[in-house]
Each structure stands twice: as structure tokens, then as C-alpha cells.
Design brief:
- Belongs to the KXD1 family.
- The protein is an all-alpha fold.
- The protein has three helices and no strands.
- The chain is rod-shaped, with a radius of gyration of 40 Å.
């Protein structure tokens, strides 16, 4: 029984060998080797780029965080300044009602858009 199975498998393998040419198999093996080389090169380039991007991100994120803190501090300072200006203006208006004769000048003091309001 084992001999007949072995003989049958031998015959099937011989038939497969006649179906596919050796040159075609060698060509496929060569193409697969070329593709493997290209994929390995691409992988190395991407790994190098990822390392570079990670270093750049680390540098930029520190600067970005520092600049964000600076801008928040500046905004708080400006809000405080404009609050004091409005307070001074209301005190002047309370003491001297004719100090600002028309309402058009009140808009000239603070024409900044309110960035915290949704648009």
C-alpha cells in the first residue's frame, strides 16, 4: 500500500514538473528576490524617515508648548489691560459724563473680535 502511494505521488510530481517550465520558475524566483530587495529598501527608508520625524516632532512639540504658554499668558495680560481700560473709562464717564460725547467713540476703543464666541 505504501509503495503504491509513493509511486502515485512520484507520478503526480513528475506530471507537475512537465506542466511548469523550469525557466518560468527561475524567472518567478528572480522576480520575487527583486521585489524582496525593493521592499527591504523601502522598509529601511521608512524606518529612517520615522526616526527623523520623531526627532523633529520632539523638537517642535517643545517649542509649540512653550509658545502656547506664552500666547495664553499674553492673552491673560491683554484681557486684564482691557478690563482695566473699561473700568477707567466707566469711572471717567461717571465723573465726567461729557468726556465721551457720542457713542461712536466707544466702539473705537475695543474693536477686537471676540475669539471666544462661536461663529
Amino acid at each position: 500500500m505504501e509503495e503504491s502511494i509513493r509511486a502515485a505521488s512520484q507520478e503526480v510530481s513528475e506530471e507537475f514538473k512537465t506542466l511548469v517550465k523550469t525557466e518560468d520558475l527561475n524567472s518567478l524566483r528572480h522576480l520575487q528576490h527583486l521585489i524582496l530587495g525593493r521592499l527591504q529598501d523601502s522598509n529601511a527608508v521608512l524606518a529612517h524617515y520615522n526616526d527623523f520625524a520623531e526627532n523633529c516632532f520632539a523638537d517642535v512639540s517643545l517649542e509649540f508648548a512653550r509658545n502656547t504658554r506664552l500666547l495664553k499668558s499674553m492673552k491673560a495680560d491683554l484681557d486684564y489691560i482691557f478690563l482695566k481700560l473699561r473700568s477707567i473709562k466707566s469711572k471717567i464717564l461717571a465723573t465726567y459724563p461729557d468726556a465721551f460725547p457720542d457713542d461712536s467713540t466707544s466702539d473705537a476703543f475695543d474693536r477686537r473680535p471676540d475669539l471666544e464666541l462661536p461663529q
